[in-house]
Amino acid sequence: MADRRRNRRIAAALVAVPLAMGALAWASAPLYRLFCQVTGFGGTPGIAADAPKAAADAPSIEIRFNADIAPDLDWRFGPVERAVTVRLGEPALAFYRAENLGDEPVTGAAVFNVTPLKAGAYFSKIDCFCFTEQRLGPGESADMPVSFFVDPEIARDPNVRDVGTITLSYTFFRSEEEPSEDEAAPNRQQADAAAGEKTAAAPNAANVTNGGVSAAAINREQTHGG
């Protein structure tokens, strides 16, 4: 009987711990993102102020670049170069190019990760266009930089010794604070209708005003007997 109670307590704890971790991640997204950046969990690259000094004989690794676009974002987006080879610890600079194919300004936000996921702990960004939202006008294009390095410690970790290539991936989404094209269309139609009503009402208002002046003039003439 005691063994059964102990087993039930262990089973309950095993269920409660993942649920608690999930609730914490849901309730505190910034803390969860910080945890991912510090640990490389889920292939999330870290953020660093600068790169360590690269040794002259440091091994090299290939970095590939990938790009995707959310369905509701009418942009063209992709890497300027598909791949580069860098020495471990050496800072590198790459560019992605984005173009707004629509006929209105749009703000986009990029999310990112690296694969294989286990390499995330050793891939760090110094600066990146993904740190802030990007706004492009109709037909506007822009080259967006990302500077990064791969920690030399990756060569000493037996768990990632088989990694010869790291892929850096971005996906651009329409900013959450900006309505999509389908959501914005009714608002624009309402605004256009309101503007039309104001335009139509303006001549009527002028006529009423002119009529009022004429009526007042007639009243004054009648009052003064003129």
Describe this structure in words.
There is one protein chain. By secondary structure, the protein is of the alpha+beta class. It has 2 domains: 1-39; 43-174, Ctag/Cox11 (Ctag/Cox11 (Pfam 04442)). It is built from 3 helices and 10 strands, in the order H-H-E-E-E-E-E-E-E-E-E-E-H. It has helices spanning 2-27, 29-39, 181-223, and strands spanning 46-47, 60-69, 75-79, 83-87, 92-100, 106-115, 123-128, 134-136, 141-150, 165-174. The strands form 2 sheets. Strands 1-7-9-5-3 form a 5-stranded mixed sheet. Helix 1 (2-27) packs across helix 2. The protein is elongated and about 50 Å long. Residues 13-43 and 198-226 have low confidence and may be disordered.
| Form type | elongated
Question: What amount of the residues lies in strands?
Answer: 25-35%
Query: Which segments are poorly predicted (pLDDT under 50) over 5 or more consecutive residues?
Result: 13-43, 198-226
Number of helices, where a helix is a run of at least 4 consecutive DSSP H or I residues:
3
Report the C-alpha radius of gyration, rounded: 31 Å
Class by alpha and beta content: alpha+beta
Lateral arrangement of strands in the main beta sheet: 1-7-9-5-3
Q: Round the mean pLDDT to the nearest integer and report it.
A: 73
Instruction: Report the span from N to C terminus.
Output: 115 Å
Briefly, what CATH class of the largest domain?
Mainly Beta
* Tally of strands: 10
